[in-house]
Description:
- This protein is α/β, with parallel strands linked by helices.
- The protein is 34% helix and 15% strand.
- It is built from eleven helices and nine strands.
- Strands 1, 2, 3, 4, 5, 6, 7, 8 and 9 form a nine-stranded mixed beta sheet that branches.
- A hairpin with a 1-residue loop joins strand 3 (108-112) and strand 4 (114-119).
- Helix 4 (120-133) packs parallel to helix 5 (151-165) and helix 8 (218-230) packs parallel to helix 10 (259-275).
Amino acid sequence: MEEGQGLQPGRNPDWMSLLPEELLDVPLWNLALPGSHDSMSFCLDLSSPVLKSEPHLLRVIDRLVPCWTRPCVSRWATTQAVLTDQCDLGIRFFDLRIARKPGGGDKLFFAHGIYTIMTVKEALEELATWLDAHPKEIVIISCSHFESLTDEDHVNLVEFIISLFGNKLCPPKDTPTLRSCWSRGQQVVVSYGDELVLLQHPELWPGVPYWYADSPDPKKVIAYLEDQKSKGRPAGFYVSGLNLTEDAPYVLLHPLQSMRKMTMRALSLLLDWASKQRPGGQKVDGVNILCCDFVGVRSFCSLVIDLNYKLLDGRPV
């Protein structure tokens, strides 16, 4: 399919509160949850230098084709919509890649090839406001990468997260279900990809495994996910990544393409695979979090949410 075709996206701001009674005691890692890959890539700062942390070798592109680096980076790095819009669509897992920007003072930003304009604190405050308006919706925040963060940065960031969300935090000692979270007023699972920080803060969850094929070919992505499934799913939260990955040679061979065009051409195949999955426990190799770029297109969120109704057929979850 060409870009622009397909279903219009649905809005699912309160989908968790609308699930059937039979699903309210299912652990959240046995439900199907829509997630966004590189969740903050909608507010990129094109005036900032390219980060070296991404695997896409954008610095190589900058050296090889300097005359179109800026628009090139924009086309290949911008993949999502505003955070609250993602929440309204139904996204419940956020892939937050945190970085310290040179010359940015003590503020932290997000990075996807280049830095964001919005700070980490601004984004999390926006999310907290949305959660106040939707008290039965639960989100998983995955903080990772931590480009150039100091020990002090980690301390300040975690203290801010704990202060901001407070009693909304669901600690890892609990097995979160919708009913248990609602009874305690819990709405936020925070995964933090730094082992030392985890040892110091029992409120935080370990990093969520992310099955990531690292390929621009949707058939290879699906083959990779099937191979991972055959080995058995992780016991807790985990992500199946439906996102494609460009590399420097691919970008150079497709100078007029963009991440959006590449994704749209592959999305029908990827979503068809997703529609055949089933959430649930380890015995059924069930999916849990499914992540995608451009989550606002072709009813991605609605498709993932609807997978949960497969659990009503009486099979173990």
